[in-house]
C-alpha cells in the first residue's frame, strides 16, 4: 500500500511534539483534521500508532513507523534538493576534452573555479588531439572541448576563451636562451620542432605561416612523440613555438623567449554542440567566462 509523504510528516511531528495540538501548530493545520487523518491511517494500516492516554506517545508499531518515516522523509528531501540543484546546473558531470597546451594553465584554472563556485558539478577531463576531440564531440562523448583548431561545423557553438601570444622554447645551451624577446627571423636556418601536423592541423598551419612571414627559411622536424619534454632541443640549433601560457611550465633544461613578431593571437576556444546543452554545461561555460574576465583574458 502507498502512504502519502504528508502523512509521514504528520506522524513524525506528533511523535516529536508529544501531542496533536502542538504538532498541528507546528504543521499549520487544524488539530481536528490532523487527528482524523492519523486515525484514518491507523485504520488503514490496522495498527495503533499512538497511545492517547494518559499522554500521547508512540506505540511499538508507532516507533517503527516514525523511525522508518524519518529515513524516507530525509531521502525525499535529499531527492528534491538534488533535483533542483541539477535543474540549475549545480549538480552533475560535464565531460571536457582538451588539447595538451590547455592543461599548462587554463584547464587547472577553470577546474579550480568550478570547484570553488559549483562544488556539486564534476568536471571529467580527458586530453586528446584535436581530430580525436572533434570526432568524440560529434559522437556525444564530450560535452565541451577546449582546442585551438576545431573545424568549423554547423553543429558547433564556439566561443573564444583565451587568445595568447607565442613564445619560443629552446634548450639552455641555445645562443638565444638568455634573451627575453626575439623576432622569428633570428631563428633563421634553425630547426623548428613540432608535433605531427595531422594531430594539430590548425596550429601547425598557424606556426608555419608565422615562420614564412618572417621571410627566412627553416628546417622542419615533426616529433613522433607527444609533449615538449620529448622534443630534441638540446642541440643549440632547434626551437619550438608554444602559447605564452607555457612560460614557467616548460621542461627542465629549456627556456622560453617571447616572440615579438606582429602575429594574430593563437586562440583557445570553448566548443560544444548546439543540440546538447545541459544545465551543468551552461554553468561551466559561464564560470569560464567569468574567469576570463577576472584574469584579463578575452571573451567574444
Write structural notes for this entry.
By secondary structure, the chain is of the alpha/beta class. The chain has three domains: 5-87, Orthogonal Bundle (Arc Repressor Mutant, subunit A), CATH 1.10.10; 92-163 and 267-295, Periplasmic binding protein-like II (D-Maltodextrin-Binding Protein, domain 2, 3-Layer(aba) Sandwich), CATH 3.40.190; 166-259, 3-Layer(aba) Sandwich (D-Maltodextrin-Binding Protein, domain 2). Helices cover 38% and strands 23% of the residues. The protein is built from eight helices and 13 strands. It has helices at residues 5-17, 20-27, 31-45, 60-87, 106-117, 130-138, 201-213, 279-295, and strands spanning 50-51, 57-58, 92-98, 121-127, 144-147, 156-164, 166-171, 181-182, 191-195, 219-223, 238-243, 254-259, 266-273. Strands 8-12-7-11-9-10 form a six-stranded mixed β-sheet, with no helix packed on it. Strands 4-3-5-13-6 form a five-stranded mixed β-sheet, with helices on both faces. Strands 1-2 form a two-stranded antiparallel ribbon.
Amino acid at each position: 500500500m502507498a502512504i502519502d509523504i504528508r502523512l509521514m510528516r504528520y506522524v513524525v511531528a506528533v511523535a516529536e511534539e508529544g501531542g496533536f495540538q502542538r504538532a498541528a501548530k507546528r504543521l499549520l493545520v487544524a488539530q481536528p483534521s490532523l487527528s482524523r487523518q492519523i486515525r484514518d491511517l491507523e485504520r488503514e494500516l490496522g495498527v495503533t500508532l499512538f497511545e492517547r492516554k494518559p499522554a500521547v506517545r508512540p506505540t511499538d508499531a508507532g516507533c517503527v513507523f516514525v523511525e522508518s518515516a524519518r529515513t524516507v522523509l530525509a531521502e525525499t528531501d535529499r531527492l528534491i534538493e538534488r533535483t533542483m540543484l541539477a535543474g540549475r546546473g549545480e549538480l552533475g558531470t560535464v565531460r571536457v576534452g582538451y588539447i595538451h597546451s590547455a592543461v599548462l594553465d587554463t584547464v587547472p584554472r577553470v577546474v579550480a573555479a568550478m570547484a570553488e563556485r559549483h562544488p556539486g558539478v564534476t568536471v571529467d577531463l580527458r586530453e586528446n588531439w584535436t581530430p580525436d576531440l572533434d570526432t568524440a564531440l560529434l559522437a556525444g562523448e564530450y560535452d565541451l572541448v577546449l582546442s585551438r583548431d576545431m573545424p568549423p561545423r554547423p553543429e558547433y557553438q564556439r566561443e573564444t576563451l583565451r587568445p595568447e601570444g607565442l613564445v619560443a622554447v629552446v634548450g639552455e645551451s641555445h645562443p638565444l636562451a638568455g634573451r627575453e624577446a626575439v623576432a622569428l627571423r633570428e631563428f633563421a636556418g634553425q630547426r623548428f620542432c613540432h608535433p605531427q601536423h595531422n594531430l594539430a592541423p590548425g596550429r601547425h598551419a598557424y606556426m608555419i605561416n608565422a615562420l614564412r612571414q618572417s621571410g627566412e627559411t627553416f628546417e622542419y622536424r615533426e616529433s613522433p612523440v607527444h609533449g615538449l619534454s620529448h622534443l630534441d632541443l638540446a642541440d643549440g640549433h632547434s626551437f619550438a613555438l608554444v602559447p605564452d601560457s607555457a612560460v614557467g611550465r616548460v621542461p627542465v633544461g629549456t627556456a622560453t623567449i617571447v616572440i615579438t613578431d606582429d602575429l594574430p593571437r593563437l586562440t583557445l576556444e570553448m566548443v560544444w554542440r548546439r543540440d546538447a546543452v545541459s544545465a551543468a554545461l551552461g554553468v561551466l561555460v559561464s564560470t569560464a567566462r567569468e574567469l576570463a574576465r577576472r584574469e584579463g583574458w578575452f571573451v567574444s
